[in-house]
Automatic annotation (TrEMBL):
<dbReference type="InterPro" id="IPR000073">
    <property type="entry name" value="AB_hydrolase_1"/>
</dbReference>
<dbReference type="InterPro" id="IPR050266">
    <property type="entry name" value="AB_hydrolase_sf"/>
</dbReference>
<keyword id="KW-0378">Hydrolase</keyword>
<dbReference type="Pfam" id="PF00561">
    <property type="entry name" value="Abhydrolase_1"/>
</dbReference>
<feature type="domain" description="AB hydrolase-1">
    <location>
        <begin position="20"/>
        <end position="247"/>
    </location>
</feature>
<dbReference type="InterPro" id="IPR029058">
    <property type="entry name" value="AB_hydrolase_fold"/>
</dbReference>
<protein>
    <submittedName>
        <fullName>Alpha/beta fold hydrolase</fullName>
    </submittedName>
</protein>
<dbReference type="GO" id="GO:0016020">
    <property type="term" value="C:membrane"/>
</dbReference>
<dbReference type="GO" id="GO:0016787">
    <property type="term" value="F:hydrolase activity"/>
</dbReference>
Amino acid sequence: MPHIQLKDVNLYYEQQGEGPNLVMVAGLGVDHSMWNTEYFAKDFRVTVLDNRGAGQSSTPKGPWSMKVMAADVIALCDALGIKKAHFVGHSMGGHITQMIGALYPQYCDKLVIACSEQIFSIISRLATNQQIVLMNYNLPPRVLLQNYLPLLFSMDFLENEDKVNAFLDFMLDNPYAQSPEGYILQTEALRTHDSRPLLERIKAPSLILGCEDDLLTPLKNSQYLAKHISNATLKVIPNCGHAPFVEYPEMFNQMILDYLKN
């Protein structure tokens, strides 16, 4: 599968489908496999990538920032001949998408910013700090992941043992699980995130997707983004935590598709 060397990082990417360009950017701790590429490839030329420090991409020396990671995405677009695209990002990928919208407006058709925020929230800071501390104890990966579940999902989802185990199995079966070093460097980049001075520069039509029960990136932050991005539309997924692509994948994907096509 394709890799491309960009200055200090070797990025893994995949492409599928035909049509207008759609670039999808993943969040902290996950890689391109979080996206249902096949679903969107019916209507778009979909490009997904592993961010630096995740999946099959390399982990160059830090420090990084959301601006650096946005520049990675744009450099990949340049290398692939993508002059204009829709950009979709979830969580950290939404932070990166904000930077793309603000700093590289000439590349942007529409943006979708899901479960994101203008500044790294205190609960995200505390949660990632705890994960980094626990990594020092060489705990089994399943235990580390289980520790994070209450922050990722709604109560209804957590009470469904089959769904929880399916998610755990999906994450733990990934042969390219994120390294502790990659997680720490991505987290350190997130800690410096503050898009507030840049939001007024985002002019592309933007769908802000928030989730009612999201603890990591609370709904109030999606509301803030929708208020301060001039051409933004806010939509809220009820009874859902931080991972709508797991809890309500059909709804999540359809909301994105409807916005991009209409």
